[in-house]
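Convert to structure. Protein one:
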Amino acid sequence: KHLHEKMIKAKKIIGIIKHVNAFLPLKSLILMYKALVRSHLEYCDIIYHIPHVLNTPPLGVSLNSLMENVERFQYQAALAVTGCWKGSSRANLYDELGWESLSHRRMCRRILQIYKIVTKNTPSYLHDKLPPNRRNLVLLPYIFQDIRCRTGRYQNSFFPDAISSWNNTILTFEHFPSFGELKNHLTSLIRPLPKSTFDVYD
């Protein structure tokens, strides 16, 4: 119900963006989308997120049906912002605009939330939920044991999924990163550089 209400609000604003497309520059339209549409879709997104599935090539990434519905709103917004025809490639639109998928954004926001929990910038009861540190020959600080799950639904929930993603990410650093370093690293992995055709909008 929560997500359904947010999608209804997002749909109305995307309709407004379509109507003003001819009168505003691209940068203004993108700001409208990020402030007025994406903010609705990302409210509590780290809770309702269901991770995408990586398939063998050439199938690529597949999303849960609910997450696909959410992603369609960003696609509709990309059409409204650019004025492209329906049926245009989602991947090409995102690449042109420099947008990452909402699924990737939710994954990164989960990792960043774990950072806040680890560094005790959240209520203490969340830090108490962290699993024990992982041990090999020595104790590995900030690397946690994977949470055992009996069901796929629990495995996709916040702590099991976020801890797994956190472990995979934090191992790429030689030292414990600052919040800004971690965020910049994650952004560099998922966000394409925006392109401006003939510098029309620069």
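Protein two, convert as well:
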Amino acid sequence: EDLQCRTDIRAQEDEQRTFRLAIKNVYVYDHFASSLVRTALSYWSDEQTHPRETNANMIRIYVRNVSSEYQIRVSVLPVRVNIDQDAVLCVTRFLKHVNLVGGEKSSSNEEEDSIFIRSININAIKIKLDYVPRRFPNMSQIREMQVLEILSVIPLEKLELVLCETRLDSISGLERLFSEIGSNWGNDVMRKQLHRCLAGVQA
């Protein structure tokens, strides 16, 4: 009931395929023994600022595949994130392990690089974030001005951000796709929403 999936295939010369995925609700739980957080990610419920339509799915993904080209549409309802530093480090290490961030090339990476995204559309995604730091960077990281390490010690409370609507065309490979999406969101936050980040810093 909470997960719907549909695939259509049209027998033509270019063999067109469509894939639809709808997820009613998504929950990510934090099971770190040291963490005070239990629900790390869920739907952000707020009937005043963004009332949810009846039976609206939290995540909807549509993919159209013709030959070796893909057209993608992604829609995500507002997201509530409550996370601490240990969980962030765990996710970062996992992404490195599967070669999504800073890993070495593998045969699977080469296959992913051959994927051509004709277009992708992602709606604007509202996020409400709480972040709890656990430890301070060492002095060498501070001297070297490793920005991410320094920012990781800043606590955030009820920080509201919007990941801007994103449209990209003619992207080769998943690594470049994720990089472009992250760059679009990061640049928009730094240019237009930095004041919200400062307002969300706990004293």
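The first strand starts at residue 3 and ends at 10. The two ends are 43 Å apart (CA to CA).
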